[in-house]
Structure formats: structure tokens, C-alpha cells
Structure to design on (648 residues):
């Protein structure tokens, strides 16, 4: 029998999964639709069957799942593997004992963690943090929301609710836009994918983004950070909007560097695909604002794993717990 | 022979020292003037003699110094006990091997640390952190400058240069006032003692602070946070200025809570003497801005040790190292 570990990234629309061997080598990856409206029991049963099916495929039916790690979009009770607050799924998903339910079905331990903290584990074990056991690293996921994760001296910082590292909800502009969280001027209101796309759409409507207009047929709802990334080469206003958003990310990064003096900052999520414009702006803002100690040695990099960070982190979680 | 430990708080104008026994009980405290212009060799020699003298006083000449901890205002090489950048002393104080010099004189190990990180150790060992070995605590010293220190899971976070925790240089207002550090809109520009006193002085000059005017004979240079604290009970504009500054502290505290999810925030330094106005404002801003997890269980308190935090922390440092 072959010992196998499964990593699961549970999203609002898709469930991504990977099966790894005991060395952490990924043997296969696949995904299914979430259909969260079916309710937690049905969805978890489907995920369980999906994992068994994937395990059988890589082992000719001779594999056994020794552990499952799962990243979920929201707050969880890490110790007990129970969901707490998952804003992107239905309200049925509150207080679901996911670890117990899936463990009954699969007969192995199940570990649950917030998805961005899980992606942070991915970067730690398989990305920029690989082979650096004492690294202090901050991961910021710039996507539909903005989240983060802290690794301090090689160890993921969770806090009592697994909620440490919510860097998207730092106040950047005290009188800034209202945030979904209830506060205002959070980084998420200024540099999430939707925030940037919405500014791109506005610039297009007032005639300042002809290239973007052509790319999305003038439909504001079609504006994506990807389209903006292309348009930025020809539309100066779009480029400026991206630089503005990146400057806010830079302030958030400068603040966390001033607080923690980490070895590395890793930027992930869809917005990170802006690549050089984002990284160069963030680095310039950090050099400008962090003056209390030299920052040349602090690396500011794009995620090495990209969209795979979540599922890879879930594999790392399956293999070893993050809670003492 | 009695085993003794000395804690030293080296400031720009005064050197405070305490002698403790091996249990950490403070036996005596005293202070001398720094006269930093005499240069490091002369000042350190004087400090050494002062410590020997204090030790002899508490032990009838039968004591021996087993260790000295010293907090200094600036950056130090913690591993080697060498000063790096001490902006409040003369330039002669750069790269001084304090540990070696004082150790030659006293014949015991000398440990050096930034003064605010030392005060953080004081709160950890003798103040709010006492008997809480796993506490995660953030100390913010609101004085002439604004500094801070982080205790994560019971352990002081230093970072590679002992510079982690520089919370006074978080950006609070991206386009705010120029800061001494070279950045702008840092917490220090908005909530240090001088920043608050300068606003008090301005309000007095334009006739909005009659009580403060009486207290300081209309002399702007005489305005202190202490005078403002008294005037705030009668001058609404002064009260408002204090609340404004406290709101900025609140934003900084909210950001660090969102980042680290600590158990406790401790506010120290001269500005902390505003007491209730400061604490209530900070607590209200935190409740308003931290929405990602419940904050009721996060204590936000005034320093228990006040001006003694530095020298008490230096005693803790003398008794046990903070570096692995």
C-alpha cells in the first residue's frame, strides 16, 4: 500500500485537489465545481468521493489516504476543524464540523485552515520558503479579496482564531472607501481585483482608456485586471491606476516590514499578475517609507506557485499540523 | 557573596540603573546624568563605576555583578553588543563595542538592546506579561519619539537588526507631515509628545485654549502633554486635539491587531499619561476598524511600569538573553 496525502482548496466556485506521496511530491491534480448551494453535507461527500477516486487513479487502487489538508475561504476553528465564518459560501456553511464529517468518510485525519494561510504554507514549503527553515515571510494574496499570512521564524502565525495576517484590512486611507468588512480605507478597498477593475471601468467610461475599451467591447462588467494589464501598455491612465493601487500595496508592505522586519514579502493572487509594474512600485514605496533600517536585503517577490499556492499548501497541511 | 544583576536605561540626558538579586527583585535604583558629549569611553567608565558603587551599597561590598542589561536609544547589533545608530546621542556613539568595553571593566557579560524593546521586556517580565509565558503582546511607547516592541508567544521578536516593532513609523496618513525618519505621515508625526504639544501650542496661539494659556503663561515652548492633560478638562479644543492624536494611535493599534491578533496591547511613554482619553479612544477605533475577528478579548492597557519599564526590562535582559 502506498501512503498518500491530499490537499484541497475549497473555493466559492471550484474545489481544487492534489494528491501527493509521503515525500510531498504531487502525483496528480484535478478540480470539480463546488455547488455550495447543495449544502455542506452533499458537497463534502462529493469531495470525499473525488479524493478517493483521485487516490485510486495514482495507485491503481493500492493507495491509502493518510491525511487531508483543506483551505477554506474564511475563518475556521483550526484546533477542531470546524468552519466559523465563510462569507463566500452560503450561511449553511457556518459551524460545520468538516474535519469530523470527512474523517468519518475517509478514515484519516482532516486539517482545516483559512485559504490564504494555506497558500502561505504552500509558499513556505514549496515556493520561496523552500529549504529556508527559519524564514520570516509575509504572504499577501491580492485577489477578489485581499488576505495574507505570516510565517515567523519558519512557523505559520495563526493567532487564537487562525485569523492573524489579515493584511487586506489594514487601514491605508483613514477616510477612504467603505470596506465590506465594515471599516473604511482598508487595503482591500484600494487594491483588490474588483477595486482596480472598477477604476479601470470608470476611466474607460470617461474616454481615457481606448485600448481597454476595444479589449472589452466597452462593457464595464468585462473589465478584468488581466485586460487592464494588456491595456496598460497603451493607455497611460490605466497604467497610472495600476501604479496607484500598487502604491497602496506598497504602503501596506512598508507597514508590515516596519512592524516585523521579515526576510521576504511574497505577493500572490490575481492582481500579482501585473508583475513588474506591481513589484517595482511596491519596492520603490518600501525604499521611500521604511527608513528605520536598511531594506535592500528584504526580498519582495511574486508568488512562485501562483494559483497553485492554495492546493500545494493544503498538501503541506495534510502532511504536518500547524497547531502545537 | 551575593549574586547581583544590573539593568541600565541609557538616555540622552540621564542614565537610570537598578540592581536586582538573582530572583529579579529590585534592591535599589538610582540615576546619573549622561553627558554624552564626553564620548562613549568616559560615559561607559562612569556607568561602570556607578554600577559597582550601587552593587556595593546593597551588599555591603559582598556582592558580585553576574550580568548587566542595557537599553540604548537606537539600533544595536544585539549579538555582539555594539551600537549602530543612536540618533539622540553624538555621532561618536556609532559602532561602539559597549558590551566588550563594559565587560572588561566589570568582568561580567553585558547585553545591549534598543530601549523600547528593553521596555517591552520589562512589561513582559514585570508588568502586564508577568506569569503569562505564552502571551503575544505589543508594546507602543508614545514619547518624544514613538517606538514599539513585539512579544510573540512569550518571546521578544527582534528581527535581524533588533529593529522589529518600529510601530511609530507605520504610515497612518500617506500624504501626512514629513517625519524625522525621512518618510511622511508616520504615527510619530501625529501622536508623539512633541507633535501633540505643538498642536496644543497652535490652538493656544489662536485663542482656543485659555486654560492652557494660563497654565504655561502663554509660552508655546512650555506646552507639555502634562499641561494639555490638565487643560483638556476645560478647553474643548485641547481635548479634541488629544482625541485626534489618540485616534491615530487607534489606527496604528488596529493595524497591528489585524496583522498579529495579539492577546494584549500596552501603551507606554509620556503620552500614555493621558490615561482614559487615550485608552477609550484607542479602544473605540479598534472596535470600529477591526472587523475580521472579535476584539473584545484583546486587552488594550496602559503600561503597568510607566517610566520604570526601561530599567526593569534591562534587569530582565541582564538575567536572560533574548537571542537564541
Amino acid at each position: 500500500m502506498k501512503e498518500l496525502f491530499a490537499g484541497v482548496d475549497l473555493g466559492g466556485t471550484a474545489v481544487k485537489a492534489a494528491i501527493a506521496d509521503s515525500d510531498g511530491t504531487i502525483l496528480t491534480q484535478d478540480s470539480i465545481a463546488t455547488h455550495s448551494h447543495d449544502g455542506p453535507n452533499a458537497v463534502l461527500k462529493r469531495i470525499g468521493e473525488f479524493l478517493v477516486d483521485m487516490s485510486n487513479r495514482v495507485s491503481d487502487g493500492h493507495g491509502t489516504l493518510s491525511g487531508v489538508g483543506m483551505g477554506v475561504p474564511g475563518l475556521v476553528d483550526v484546533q477542531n476543524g470546524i468552519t466559523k465564518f465563510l462569507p463566500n459560501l452560503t450561511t449553511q456553511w457556518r459551524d460545520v464540523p468538516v474535519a469530523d464529517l470527512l474523517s468519518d468518510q475517509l478514515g484519516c485525519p482532516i486539517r482545516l485552515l483559512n485559504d490564504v494561510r494555506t497558500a502561505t504554507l504552500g509558499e513556505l514549503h514549496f515556493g520561496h520558503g523552500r529549504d529556508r527553515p527559519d524564514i520570516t515571510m509575509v504572504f499577501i494574496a491580492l485577489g477578489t479579496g485581499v488576505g495574507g499570512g505570516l510565517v515567523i521564524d519558519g512557523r505559520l502565525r495563526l493567532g487564537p482564531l487562525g485569523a492573524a495576517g489579515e493584511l487586506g484590512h489594514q487601514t491605508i486611507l483613514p477616510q477612504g472607501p467603505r470596506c465590506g468588512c465594515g471599516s473604511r480605507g482598508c487595503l482591500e478597498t484600494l487594491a483588490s481585483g474588483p477595486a482596480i477593475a472598477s477604476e479601470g471601468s470608470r476611466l474607460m467610461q470617461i474616454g481615457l482608456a481606448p485600448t481597454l475599451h476595444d479589449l472589452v467591447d466597452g462593457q464595464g462588467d468585462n473589465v478584468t485586471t488581466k485586460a487592464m494589464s494588456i491595456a496598460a501598455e497603451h493607455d497611460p491612465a490605466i497604467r497610472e491606476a495600476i501604479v496607484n493601487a500598487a502604491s497602496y500595496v506598497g504602503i501596506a508592505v512598508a507597514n508590515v516590514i516596519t512592524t516585523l522586519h521579515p526576510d521576504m514579502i511574497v505577493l500572490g493572487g490575481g492582481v500579482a499578475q501585473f508583475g513588474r509594474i506591481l513589484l517595482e512600485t511596491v519596492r520603490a514605496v518600501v525604499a521611500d517609507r521604511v527608513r528605520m533600517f536598511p531594506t535592500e536585503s528584504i526580498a519582495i517577490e511574486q508568488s512562485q506557485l501562483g494559483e497553485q499556492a492554495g492546493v500545494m499548501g493544503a498538501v503541506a497541511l495534510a502532511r504536518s499540523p500547524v497547531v502545537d
Summary: Chain A has two domains: 2-122+308-319, 131-303.
